[in-house]
Amino acid sequence: MRLGPHPTSRLEAERMIAAARVMLASTSLLAIWLDPAEPARFTEVTYALHVGYVAYSLIVAASTRRGSIGNTFALVTHISDVVVFSVFQYLTLGPSSPFFVYFIFSLFCGAIRWGWKGTFGTALIVSLAYIVMGVSMSKTLGASEFELNRFIIRIAYLAVTAGLLVYLGQYEARLSEEIARLARWPAATGANVREVIERVSEHAARIVGAGRALVVWEAEDEPSINVVSWSPKATSMTRHAPDELVPLVTGGEDAAAFLRTGAATGAGGILVNADGGLVESDELRIHPALSSRLSGVGLAAAPFKTDRVSGWIFFADIRTATREIIPLAEVVAREIGASLDQLHVTRQLQEIAASEERIRVARDLHDGVLQSLTGIRLELRSMAVSLDGEATSRDRLFAIERALAIEQRELRFFIGGLSPAPVGDGEAPHAEATLSSRLELLRERIAAEWKVPVTIRVAHDLASLPLRITEAIPPMVHEAVVNALKHGQPSRVIVAVQPEPGGLRIIVSDDGHGFPFRGRYDHAELTRTNTAPISLLERLTSLGGEMSIESTDTGSRVEMRLTV
Questions:
Q1: Does residue 12 have a pLDDT over 90?
Q2: Could you tell me where the DSSP H helices lie in 419-466?
Q3: C-alpha–C-alpha distance, residues 437 and 497, integer Å
Q4: What does the pLDDT look like over 105-137, one tens digit per residue?
Q5: Is 62 exposed, middle or buried (0-12, 13-18, 19+ CB in 10 A)?
Q6: Which of 48, 336, 399, 533 lies at a C-alpha separation of 20 to 30 Å from 69?
Q7: What local confidence, expressed as pLDDT, does residue 2 receive?
Q8: Can you give 210-262 as a three-state secondary structure string?
Q9: CA gap 338, 336 in Å, rounded
């Protein structure tokens, strides 16, 4: 619900109207004193009423200086003005009255007080009063006193003035709503990047009045371009190689906002030059891969850049593609850049906190549980050696000691997976090389410990991945493979790491006995039935991924999907 003006602005408006009323009434009184209205009827009454109206105006002006003014005060004075103005018109030749300007004054008062609705309502009342007055007085006044041409012109004057004021009022209301929406800019919080960008894009599109929005950006530590396409029907998010969408915009100034009033997929437009002015260009073009996602009439685009992210925002299918959209698009672009920057910082802080927590857990496990297991193993071996002639007990103790040794090796590997990946030369290594090397090391250690062939394939066309994904994949693969070796007793295990649109897919398959259930369970079913490896499912869910498992008598297939 839209509220009325702030009390402070209401008081200032009433003071301005009161000052104008005093000026208008005083001038009118002086005019009829110098030259009484012709014909000389109601002259004394008109003069007396104007004296009273001047006194009334002074009292109202004094009242506005004393304190706050409410809506009731504004409504009463507005109605009083319209009634008094109608009386003045009637007493001074009606439609031909020299005080017609009073009606125009009332229109402006309605606009200042209540916006376009106040103008419209006042215009209806004033126009009706003027027309009724003119029709009734045309029968009693002579041809020289009732001027039909002036009557028609003044009706048109009232209509045109009211129409312009209504338009300005609606324009002001739209600007106020845009400012209010900017003030209500959604917070860039949440674990799901796509949901945050979707929320921000929708809010930005509504501010500009666009049916589609396209956000393109890249972060300083992620060598890839992100594209989010929003429309009321659907939202999509894709990642592209750094050189895949270069250049985004051609034919204009570097990093300059622009507007296209024709088809969104056309060429040319109005752009902001280096001096901040607007110039027309016939050479403006958007990269075809982006232009294909924009449709409708009207296009506005603006760049944004912060310390950590840079990109463009494109708005298509704009209801009113006028030049005033350009600065609005620039302001909205800066807000989007700030939201993306905040989201990027939040994710970095979360990754740092998670990394520090992993290091703490690894240290605690190494110094606590792992050392305790080592002591237990040594004690068991000592007991087994001291048993003479009791082969069965000695073998059982050695078997327990070997089982502890296996668990120790797995625990050491788990602790190693908690440590951050090494980075050389101050630069982040490519995700494919990092994954390939870490997963190859993982394969060798699992094969040596379990004496079972393990094959791990990493796709050659794997795009660069965020560090949090790169660090999460090896522990997930390790847990999935070891779980298959422990419970399925397979003769071989195959792992495939493959990219897919908007994400990554990890498949772990074996030829063992499978899981206790038979058939294919999706993520929701696995969560509901608790049939998946709990820690693996929780780790994947925390990353925003999903898991599905297919289990048969001849093996199992674990499929994990991650959005990147």
A1: no
A2: 431-450
A3: 13
A4: 999 999 998 888 999 999 999 999 889 888 888
A5: exposed
A6: 48
A7: 42
A8: EEEEEEEEEECCEEEEEEEEECCCCEEEEEECCCCCCCCEECCCCCCCEEEEE
A9: 5
Check pLDDT > 70 for residue 100. yes
What's the rounded Cα separation, in Å, for the pair 140 and 93?
11
pLDDT digits (tens, 9 = 90+) for 298-341: 888 889 999 888 899 999 988 777 788 888 888 999 999 988 88
Q: Which of 219, 227, 183 is nearest to 203 (CA)?
A: 183
Name the token pair of 493.
């295990």
Instruction: Work out whether strand 269-272 and strand 546-552 pair parallel, antiparallel, or are unpaired.
Output: unpaired
Question: CA-CA distance, 371 to 379, in Å (whole number)?
Answer: 12
Other residues' Cβ atoms within 10 Å of the Cβ of residue 85: 24
Q: Which neighbouring-strand residues pair with 238?
A: 227
What's the mean pLDDT in 472-482? 87
CA Rg value for the chain? 39
C-alpha span between 450 and 167 (Å, rounded):
80
Assess whether pLDDT exceeds 70 at residue 245.
yes
- Residue 25's contacts (CB-CB under 8 Å, 6 or more residues apart) are 50, 53, 54, 56, 57
End-to-end CA distance of the chain: 40
d(CA 204, CA 301): 12
Q: Are strands 493-500 and 454-458 parallel, antiparallel or unpaired?
A: parallel
Tally of residues, the chain = 564
Q: Which helix (H) or strand (E) holds 93?
A: none
Residue carrying structure tokens 């259930």 = 517
Burial class (CB in 10 A: 0-12, 13-18, 19+), 6: exposed
Locate tokens 């520090």: which residue? 356
